[in-house]
Amino acid sequence: MDDKFLTLDEVSKYLKIPKSTLYKLTERKEIPSVKIGKQLRFRKSSLDKWLFAKEGAVTTEGVSSPKEDEICSPKTPQKHILLVDDDELVLKTISKFLKNYNYEVTSACSGEEALEKSQTKDFDLIITDVRMPGIDGIETIKRIRVLNQQHHKPTPKEIIITAYIDTEAQRAAEGLGVSDYIYKPFIAGEFIKSVKEKIAFNINLN
C-alpha cells in the first residue's frame, strides 16, 4: 500500500483486527486517525509507525531465535500460559513470541474473560497487564486465586506487565507476592528468562 488515507474497512483488513477494536482505539486516541468530513481515515505511514511501536512491546535486544535446548522436547508436556491484555496487537505479539518456545498460550482481552477461561482450563503461568477496562490485572489475579482455591486447584505463578509507572499497583502486586512486575517495552531475553523461571518454580512445587 502507498502512503495514502485508508478507510476503516481497509485498516481492519490490513491489521487483521475487528472494526469494533479500531473504534475503541480511536476513541481512546491510541491509534493515529483523522476526520475527513464525517469519515474516519488513517494515514498509512502513521499507521505503520504505530504498528511498529506496538510490536515493540517485546524488543529483540539480546535475544535471537530460540535454541534447540531452549524449546520443549515433543516428549515434554506443553506448559500452559494465560496471557491477559486489552490491547489485541500486544496479545498477538507476545503470544507469537511465547509460542516460539513451544508454550501453549491462551489469550484473554479482559479480566472477565481471563476468569471464564480459568474455570475451564488449568494454567502454569498467568501474564497480565495492569490497566484494563473492568477488572484490572491486580483484581484478576486475586479472583483467579480464589477460584482455584474453591476448586482445589494449584495456583499458577504470575507475571505482571505494564506500560505505565504506577507505584500503587506495584505495591499491591508486591503485597500479593508477585515479584515480577515488568514494564513494556521489555527486552525479550529478560522476559523469557522470567517466564522460564516461574514455570520451573511451579514444576518443582508440583
Automatic annotation (TrEMBL):
GO molecular function, one term: DNA binding
Keyword DNA-binding applies: no
CDD domains tied to this protein: REC_hyHK_CKI1_RcsC-like
Residue numbers bearing the 4-aspartylphosphate modification: D129
Single biological process term from Gene Ontology: phosphorelay signal transduction system
InterPro entries, A to Z: Bact_response_regulator, CheY-like_superfamily, DNA-bd_dom_put_sf, HTH_17, Sig_transdc_resp-reg_receiver, SinI_DNA-bd
Taxonomy, superkingdom: Bacteria
Transmembrane segments: none
One Pfam family named in its UniProt record: Response_reg
Sequence ranges assigned to domain Response regulatory in this UniProt record: 80-199
Keywords of the record: Phosphoprotein
Protein name stated in the entry: Response regulatory domain-containing protein
Biological source species: Candidatus Ghiorseimicrobium undicola
